[in-house]
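Task card 7
Instruction: Convert sequence to structure tokens.
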Amino acid sequence: MAMNQDTLKRYGSKEGFDAEVLIDSRAVLAKDDFVATGILTYAQGDIMEIELPEYDVFQLGDKAKMTLYTKSGLFVLDTTVVAREPGSLIVINPPENRKKFSEKREFPRVNVKNIGQIFGFQNIQQKEQYQLEQAIEISIKNISMSGLGFTINDSSMIDAILHKKCQLQVQLDLGFEMPCMLEIIRKEKQEGSYYYGASFESVPAEQSNALRGFILRNQIQTYFEQKRDEEYKKALEKKSGANQ
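Output:
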């Protein structure tokens, strides 16, 4: 589809469209001999939400072909139903489709409340390696396919040692054990402790799919929780307005 300069300025660049262009677009979902039309109301990271009356025809795991009629053109993709609730479906936004749109983050980051352990660390600049006699527990605050944010539960000693460019030998407890190497890329002072941002240096191939599934489940859960909170607030505001 050819795009003039005005269209490019409004909807995106030559390298990729703004993901916001998808919101409120008409979405046609087709599976087997059934076709349903709805409205795309959410698109972020690996998931999209489609509001449609015939949501109950689709089951979890169903494969479907989706056609999106957006202001910047027509997009066709293969997707899978991963969650549903009355009136809407959550479907996968496949990587080949995500690449067409610009987002603030390359990978979706979700807030979590999991733990992990540091078993050793290395000062990259000085090539010093340390193995801890006793593993130190960390609290994972958020995670993506590229890295995570964490704090150290008992940080009285190690906070003074860890800094940017340190590599950590860790094991994460995400409902499954995930050994990996992290590199600290950010260290911020917080009340009573430090917050660390770290990137994955190595993730075992067999754990990559499990990590993606963990992030996807948490992304869906977080979205539904936020959506219900917003609906509850709107209901309270409406009730308050009616009583005035």
